[in-house]
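for the writeup, i need someone to sanity check this before i put it in the appendix. the sequnce is what the collaborator sent (i think, or maybe the updated version? ugh). structure was predicted straight from it, no edits. if anything looks off just tell me and ill rerun, i have time this weekend
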Amino acid sequence: MKELEQFKKGHTDLEGLEKDLRKELVSLRDFIENASIPLHWVNGSGIIIWVNRAELDLLGYSKNEVLNQHISKLHADKDVIENILRKLLNKETLMNYPARLVCKSGEIKEVLINSNVYWENGQFVHTRCFTRDITLLRKIEKEKETLIKELEGKIVQLEDENKVLKSKLYS
């Protein structure tokens, strides 16, 4: 409230105040529309009501292909999105919630979701959902695990060969 009072003090006329508020609104709208992090809003029925450019780019859809669609259309695992929606309806905040999203191309993106709900007078208005693509990270982790297993196998093989060589050397 203090900020609002200071803001008002700097504006003696309503026209100037309205102009500055419109400018601020345009700036904020540009900020979320063009943020580098994928963002979207879903209403209480699970319908996508807003999505930013980064989310569209991540999944390869146009705005018209996503808006007014059920969010489950974008999820590879129906039980996961059902659980997400249930938690949000129960006023839980999701942090780093793993999910798999389906791109228009059919590719699956592994993501972490942070989300909570904007409530107004006790009514679910929309989610505030932030999505982080971790597909590459997961791929690297799997490759690392494979390499570790291969190396462990090689170590066992070398230890066995070493035992054989030692037995031949000392016999």
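The longest strand covers residues 108-120. DSSP finds six helices and five strands in the chain.
thx in advance!!
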